[in-house]
Amino acid sequence: EGSIEGWGRVDSVLEDLAGSTAGVSEAAARRVDHRVLPQDGADDAELVVLGSGNLGLVYVPAPERLTLEELDARWPALVPGLAAHPGVGFVAVLSADGPVAIGAAGRHHLGTGVVEGVDPLAPYGDHAPAMLATATVMAQAPDLYVNSIVDPVTREVAAFEPLVGCHGGLGGWQDRGFVLAPPDLIDPDTPIVGGEMLHRLLVGALEHLGQRTDLPSVRSPQPGTARPGSTA
Q1: Radius of gyration of the chain, Cα coordinates, nearest whole angstrom
Q2: What's the pLDDT score for residue 87?
Q3: Strand, coil or helix: 1
Q4: Mind giving me the DSSP string for 5-31?
Q5: Is the predicted pLDDT of residue 228 greater than 50, yes or no?
Q6: What is the pLDDT of residues 40-58, one digit of tens each?
């Protein structure tokens, strides 16, 4: 019903307050909950749709996530209709055979790499299948990821919300981010692909500086190295 882009920062403040002033934290939390609760009638909705940059997230209000086959049985036109939309590049969903990206003219089975027809992930770069496979099988993933098209010439994407910048999905200039850091702290031997690898490198830098000593179970690469197998 409206933008809640700034409420994540409020949540961070509430977490900080929780460690010291419980009364203030609880009172603030009640005010936040009042602002972000669904509108009347949302409990009866068949689908909940959220937009984040050029990424759409479709949830089915149910205890368990639905597979592609279950979605097709309930709404036969849903996935084909989304995949065929001129502004949509692909739809990612869990099927009985694993995660799959579905485009208007083909499918990319993310678990096996098998492509049927035209590969819907071809315009998004070599890193796209592995990153999408990881995101699709996450416990927090929606029933459907809906990613916009990307222009092959300008590299612009079709955002699902009216923002100057764009974030969330695959494709476009947002895939060309960079990290500016002293090479003695972060200087990997391979490209940094994905937030998980970047997180490990940043934690490794903090451990190197003696600023992250309270989590001994975290095994991060030393500065100047890249952790194998962490590019997804």
Answers
A1: 20
A2: 94
A3: coil
A4: TTHHHHHHHHHHHHTT-HHHHHHHHHH
A5: no
A6: 555 577 899 988 889 999 9
CA nearest 100: which of 84, 82, 121? 121
Instruction: Tell the residue number behind the tokens 């590049």, with chain if given.
Output: 89
Report, as an integer, the average pLDDT of 31-39: 43
The answer for residues whose C-beta is within 8 angstroms of residue 95's C-beta and 6 or more apart is 67, 68, 69
The two tokens of residue 134 are 């990881």
Farthest CA pair distance, the chain: 58
Are residues 32 and 18 in contact, defined by beta-carbon separation less than 8 angstroms?
no
Residue with tokens 């409020």: 10
User: pTM of this prediction?
Assistant: 0.70
Q: Own/partner pairs for 221-224, CB < 8 Å, 24+ apart? A: 221/188, 223/184, 223/185, 223/186, 223/187, 224/183, 224/184, 224/186, 224/187, 224/188, 224/189
Each residue of 139-185: pLDDT tens digit?
889 999 999 999 989 888 988 887 766 777 899 887 878 889 888 88
Contacts (Cβ under 8 Å, ≥6 apart) of 196: 134, 230, 232
